[in-house]
Amino acid sequence: MTDEVERDQGAVSKFVESFAAQLVEAGMQRMPARVFAALLSSDEGAMSSGELGAQLQISPAAVSGAVRYLAQTHMVSREREPGSRRERYRVQGNQWYEALTNREAVLKRWEVALREGVASLGAETPAGLRMAETLAFFEFVDGEIAAMMERWRVHRETRFGGAT
Known about the structure:
Shape: elongated
Distance between the termini: 21 Å
Number of strands: 3
Largest sheet: 3 strands, antiparallel
Order of helices and strands: HHEHHEEHH
Structural class: mainly alpha
Strand order of the largest sheet: 1-3-2
Helix content: 55-70%
Radius of gyration: 20 Å
């Protein structure tokens, strides 16, 4: 890796493990958290499977599983190295936006299921009222996320321009 020549590799490793631990505490699986933190901390924002394996001291299979999870959650993307069959994995500047937008689709599915639950349980029953309150919460959060994401786009453009 050439992007961290001037850095204290021990300090980088400590940051990666510390940030990964925070992600794990928030619910992310351990290996994807470590891979994500390593990618996030690299200047290029991209690394090969071999580079990730060497930095994190993990197997190619562990890298592959972690990247699969991170790609499914839109936190990293895969790209081919020009003229090679090797892939590089990249974290984008907008990964949090993409991840949250992906969660927005999950909220929509939950709302549909909760509406069905309210109808099935009866809106006036204790369980139906609890379900209706949960539905109202998710509808509120969904609206707030949409408004917040629009404010973020404006803020990001003002602060960082078109950088990704």
